[in-house]
Amino acid sequence: MPLIKHEVVESGAEIALWKITETVDELVILLHKGGIYADLPFFRNQNRLAEWLATRVLISHLGVQQRVVYDEMGKPHLEGAGKFLSISHSGDMIVVIMHTSLRVGIDIEKVSDRILRCNINLSTTLKINGLMNKPGWSNYMSYGGQKNALSKYSDWEQ
Q1: How far apart are CA 98 and CA 13, in angstroms?
Q2: CA-CA distance, 109 to 53, in Å (whole number)?
Q3: Do 52 and 43 contact (CB within 8 A), yes or no?
Q4: Which pLDDT score is estimated for 140?
Q5: DSSP state, 153?
Q6: Which of 25, 56, 153, 155 is spaced 20 to 30 A from 107 at the CA atom?
């Protein structure tokens, strides 16, 4: 199991990071070993199916058996559980955060120019100022991740 990190922080939030190295078939087996027998959704993209499966394997690894359901804003919740949940994935990495009483939000983003395609104003500013290829430009990536985590935490839509 490629559980990279599992930590309970001071506030009581439980955070776990998983690197997907398994095939879809291996993830299905791991999911069943965790006691989860979910109907597999149809995804045209095998990578997206692997993300879906690995997320559920990770959550089951944390001792959670409830189904992940999504509200009208697209935010994940654990069916029938009194826990707050946030999920993020990028490339082959998945991160989840859960808390029993506090709303949570988390984001993970592979460092790339993807954020520039998502935010034209930031992209234009970085290109104009010649900052994209400077050593500290990854700080701008951090800004994007913080914005995404905040939107997951709150009811704010991006």
Answers
A1: 6
A2: 19
A3: yes
A4: 47
A5: H
A6: 25
